[in-house]
Task: structure prediction
Amino acid sequence: MEIRKVGVVGCGLMGSGIAQVSAMAGYTTVVREVSQALLDKGLGAIEKSLAKLVEKGTLSSEQKSQTAARLKPTLRLEEFADCDLVIEAIIENLERKKELFGELDRIVKPDAIFASNTSSLSITEVMTATERAPRFLGLHFFNPVPLMKLVELVKTVVTDPAAVQAALDFARKLGKTPILTSDRAGFIVNRLLVPYLLDAIRMLEEGFGTIEDIDQGMKLGCNHPMGPFTLLDFVGIDTTYYIAEILFNEYREKRFAPPPLLKRMVLAGMYGRKTGKGFYDYSDPKSPQPNRLLT
Ligand code: CAA
Result:
């Protein structure tokens, strides 16, 4: 199961990062979006990230142009036919993912490995849309993909150990550190991270401290790079709400239940950095201010 050619479906925040690190590691990488506008946006993000890495000396200008040359942008799923590994990074919607994998299963060569970058949906459930259960697994990357070292490799009860090994080798070749986990909601990281983030919101609601002080507490007291509210805005208020719902549905435990404030913020369109307002107000992106409407 040697991986030479990689396909990435979706060129949004995660897909563009995954395509970038795959091409940087030397793989010919086909990346597909549903429209030219979305493809151009994703490629623009890759270009910006590569330029930043050159500026910081992580990448040479030559490596940057080689990386760009290995990227094969497309609007057509048919381009994935001879890929050895196809990684899906589209919207977190079970039906959409199943529909996509059903289609890919008919197009891509039967011995190729399929991986989903889902952070919360069941890999086993997505897998049922294909006829290649032994070669189906989860490869969960972290945001921002070019900087974050971790990849969670999620195996189901039927994943072939040879596919797991090929995916572990692939992740290591990207310069990432893979950790192995089983298909349970949240995997390892979100199972621990999301209840912590939800607790920070409850603490705010209960008056333990301000947004800034709770953030400072975890930054300066535990050396976290971001406090919980900065991280909530970074991950996305909508995404966190969505993951919490999935965790709550799986485990039926109160600690995974989304707090009322989280739901209200989603309804109000306060999704965090991406909409300019979350627990912080990003009107001046260089100096985010706590969102006073919330306290
Ligand atoms: N590509 C290249 N360079 C990038 C980049 C990218 N995608 N994103 C940021 N950088 C650069 C910045 O431009 C910056 O460069 P300069 O030093 O020249 O300004 C440098 O990296 C450092 O970034 P920042 O100055 O913004 O500040 P930082 O030191 O805080 O680093 C960070 C940023 C790596 C994101 C750090 O804050 C961090 O590790 N935060 C925690 C992130 C985290 O927890 N991610 C996981 C979220 S959970 C998840 O993803 C899973 C899920 O399913 C929800």
User: Anything to note?
Assistant: Residues 16 and 44 are 9 Å apart (CA to CA).
